[in-house]
Amino acid sequence: MNKFTTALATGVLALGPLAAFAEDSSDPIVIPIHNWSSQIVMSNVVGQIFEQMGNNVEYVTTDSQAVYESVRLGDVTMELEVWEGAFGASYRTALEKGGLHDAGDHNAVTREDWWYPMWTKDACPGLPSWEALNDCAALFATAETGDKGMYLDGPVDWLKHGQERVAALDMNFTVVNAGSAAALWAAIGAAEADKTPIVVFNWTPNFAEAVWPGEFVEFPTWVDGCDKDPAVGPNPDALYDCGNPAEGYLKKAAWDGMKEKWPAAYETLTKISFTNPQIAEMAKFVDIDEMEPEEAAEAWLGANADIWNPWLSK
Amino acid sequence: MLDVTKKTSDKIELTRHKMALILVAVAAVLMVLRYAGLLPEALFRLPEAMIPPFAIWLDTIFNFVKDDLGLLKLTRFLTGGLEALLDTTANLLFGKRRWPNLGPIPWTSIAAVAAVLGYYLGGWRLAVLAAGTFVWTALIGQWKIAMETMSVLVIAAPVAFVIGITLGILAWRNPWLDRALKPILSVLQTLPFFTYLLPAVIFFKVGPTAGAVATIIYAIPPMILMTTLGLQKVPEEVVEAGHMSGCSRWQLLCYVYIPSARQEILVGVNQVIMLCLAMVVLTAFIGMPGLGAKLLAMMGSFKLGRSFEIGVTIVLLAVTLDRMSKAWVVKQPAHFEKGTPWWKRHVMLLLAIAAFIFFVIVSQFIEVASTVGRKQNFSQGKELDNLIKGFLNIEVVKSTTYFLRAFVNVQILIPFRNFILSIPTPAVILLVAAFALWLGGRKQAVLAAMFFSLVALSGWWDRSMITLYSVISAVSIAMLIGLPLGIVASRTERWSRRILLVCDTAQTFPSFVYLIPAIMLFGITDIAVIFSILIFAMVPLTRYTIEGLRAVPHEMTEAADMAGATRMQKLWKVQLPLALPTMAVGFNQAIMFAFFMVIIAAFIGTQDLGQELQRTLAGTDLGKNFVLGICVSLMALTFDLTIMKWASDQKRALGLGE
Fold first, then answer.
1. Which one of A233, B141, B373, B388 is most buried, counting C-beta atoms within 10 A?
2. In B96-108, which positions are buried (b, 16+ CB within 10 angstroms) versus exposed (e)?
3. CATH hierarchy code of domain A113-216
4. Partner-chain contact A56 B617, CB within 8 Å
5. What fold does the segment set B10-26+39-67+394-653 form as a domain?
6. Residue range(s) in chain A whose domain bears CATH number 3.40.190.10
7. Would B10-26+39-67+394-653 and B70-95+105-387 be classified into the same CATH topology?
């Protein structure tokens, strides 16, 4: 028995009498796992908390868009990272069809926007302003884009509207869609060798911040309605003439049946809330320190008992 | 007599080729009109208003079948049974907490049994390979995830085998079933993977079950085809002998037909195993645990080295299972003298059991023999990362890729794409029909025209053409490299074997691992997409070239030598014409692989059907997803039908049987 389990055991023992009231089903709670580290570690952290509460937990790897259909059907019990920008659309579609619901927001806020690694700033000192970026457009040109700069947007299924923004703000950029997060990293990784200026779609919290320090481009501030009313924003005739909201939500979603089947776990789920630094730390354990996700979760739980103890059901 | 038939067939050929030329001419006229600006817009692209709402219709049909006909209930019921099986193997192999709660089996036991089995099937070499694979897996720190993968495959492969052989037997018995099954199988094989994803998740529950089902569906077709083929080939005399010894129909099947078709059936088994392993990574999107899931996670955090190591494990597993199953094909049943004691006849089985038990006991006392932890492994992920990055940073590599990007991409590929997009829709349909008519025949031409018209009706014409452009470009380049490679390698037995091994490796190495280096080399461009397809498409071209050339009868080459042919003459006049039908099969497979891979290349970033398919996942837009999938399938099928017809015509003309 290692330190962590001892710590956990005492934590659970202390709360044991209270937890005993809730009668969770012995069926496994199914937690979906996707292909980025913070989500994997967070899922393991929450899973281990549930296990200590006496639940059975199983993990299943899924596609991060198709997962909402599975939550809706109850095949998967919850989703711990619903990003407003990337998965908002899939989540809302599933919400309309019914079968899952909002289980509260994390404290963390997400930001998804045009981003550049620090070395880009050496070549284009006016950054992070978007006008300065536009003036340096030629620096970002590739063999294919001619004298226009290339902006590498996220995959189309993330519905990022880079194209619309370039048109709305009349920017001298060509938008190329990467096919996956891995493709974005590969592009940054390739640019790193020569310190080639590059501007790509990126988000926070994310492991990339630790590997490649960088900044977001400052676009005209997001105003509500920028995506629906052309009058909003600097260009009176176009949609998407603002930056993305700098404080997007990071939600948890739960299957409708969870509350009845695992009341105690559900109670805990609604209380769970991670902050940006916590999420970054989890990702760092795996991405930089090369731990396995399960070990990273143990390490995080061991070091942060005061954070997660209050989440256990009362 | 023979002369006459030859002449009439020549005549048919002539008119067929003439008609094809007429079609090409009409297409050319349309193109000229277009460039002169005289072609009405409606003849250039189908007007939006004429496109039927297929997506909505399909959505309605899907929902009707799913809910009103109760298909969902049925599949969910089946899922329950499958899940019980998967849970059992999951418990045994990696200790999931399910019945029978015995596992996980120590890795040393599994490696030892694999070694004994390898020795039994193929002697020392295979024993070393089998044991080596499992020891590598354990030492590199991937034991648990490899077993998660295997826990699904050990169920999926036998299920695919059983379903495949049953359907194969039924199709052999009932020609109507055979005829009905063939097109369904072709569509299943050409449908892009993204189209399976959502239905698999909805019907079979995200997780190992959906992964197993997707794997099974993908692996069944060759099993069915090989079974039918084998049974059809059983010689009349053997069946007669069976009848004479008074066999019932069941006995005839079990003791006469199946043993006589053993060779083909086992080749089918081999194919099933290989296809199962090919799906390891893709099925991770729908919940398949293990190596694939880990690989995706590693790629998501830009860990090239460790994804590469996982790729190596998958290749090793594939090569081991492939060699074992092939050895099993060649191995003849052993016969013993009467009165040989039981233990002597089953000495290998006893040895395997003994080794198994020995290591189970050992692992009770020595922990390393039971599980290798993360801390004890020898993973070199970081070092490999630096090695790969270092390679990409070499000046020569950089200037080559820059040249390729600036020249091949900007000067050749992009103009080619724009050219294809500038051809009026009817002209493309005519050209494809002409191609099918020239190579295949009337029937193929009609089907080709119909298929491409459907693609035009789907409303995704431009994206379909970009898909087609990537496929054509990649296959053309693959031919330029793959064919000469195959020809040179086929000269000697040793080089043939070596290159075939490279082919096996390239084919089973998860295609995802290629994507990242492709991007790092070429950026997110068409050339990166084509590069990643190229690797995949070259494999069958090279493989079938080697196999076709090596199968040329000895008498033929000898005759050419005696006639005083030079090496070049012998190659061009004798060997290549005889090998051409086989090479055509390789060419066909190259196109099929390219259609498969071009959709996966959506992960790099494309503007074709793959990208649109990816987009449908966000809104769980099933109807549109089907429409796009069918577009890919129809285009692939057109080539498949035409080329396979040509290959079998040629084979018949050359008197090569079948």
1. A233
2. bebeeeebbbbbb
3. 3.40.190.100
4. no
5. MetI-like fold (1.10.3720)
6. 3-109+248-311
7. yes
Q: Say if CB B313 and CB B136 are below 8 A apart.
A: yes
Residues B292, B294, B298, B301: what is their CA dihedral angle, to the nearest 10 degrees? 110
CB contact under 8 A, B614 and A193: no
Q: Do A183 and B201 touch (CB under 8 A)?
A: no
Q: Which residues of B155-173 are buried (b: 16+ CB within 10 A; e: fewer)?
A: bbbebbbebbbebbbebbe
- Helices in A127-198 by DSSP H: which ranges? 130-135, 162-168, 181-194
Type of residue at B599: I
Q: Walk along chain B (658 residues) in steps of 10 and give the mean pLDDT of each run.
A: 50 77 92 87 85 89 87 90 92 82 85 92 92 91 91 94 94 91 86 84 88 90 88 89 90 88 86 87 87 88 86 91 85 79 84 87 79 67 81 81 85 91 93 93 93 93 94 94 93 90 84 83 88 90 90 87 89 88 88 90 88 77 90 94 89 71
* Cα A141 to Cα A149: distance, rounded to the nearest angstrom: 4
Q: pLDDT value at position B146? A: 93
Chain B residues whose CB is inside 8 A of the A295 CB are 374
What is the ipTM metric for this complex?
Answer: 0.82
Q: Number of A:B CB contacts under 8 A?
A: 174
Closest Cα partner for B207 from B296, B80, B307? B80
B603 vs A144: CB contact, 8 Å cut-off? no
pLDDT tens for A113-160 read: 999 999 999 999 988 899 999 999 999 988 888 889 999 998 877 777
B47 φ/ψ sector (left φ>0, alpha ψ -120 to 50, else beta): beta
Average pLDDT, integer, range A266-279: 92
Non-local CB neighbours of A170 within 8 Å, separated by 6+ positions: A235
What angle is formed at CA B265 by the lines to CA B262 and CA B269, rounded to 5 degrees?
130
Q: Which residues of A touch B392 (CB under 8 A)?
A: 190, 193
The per-residue pLDDT of chain A, averaged, comes to 85
Whether domain B70-95+105-387 has CATH 1.10.3720.10: yes
| Nearest alpha carbon to residue B291 among B413, B399, B148, B168 | B148
Location of each CATH 3.40.190.100 domain in chain A: 113-216
Q: What 3-state class would DSSP assign to A176?
A: strand
Domain coordinates in residue numbering, chain B: 10-26+39-67+394-653, 70-95+105-387
Residue whose structure tokens are 């069976």: B242
Fold of A3-109+248-311: D-Maltodextrin-Binding Protein; domain 2 (3.40.190)
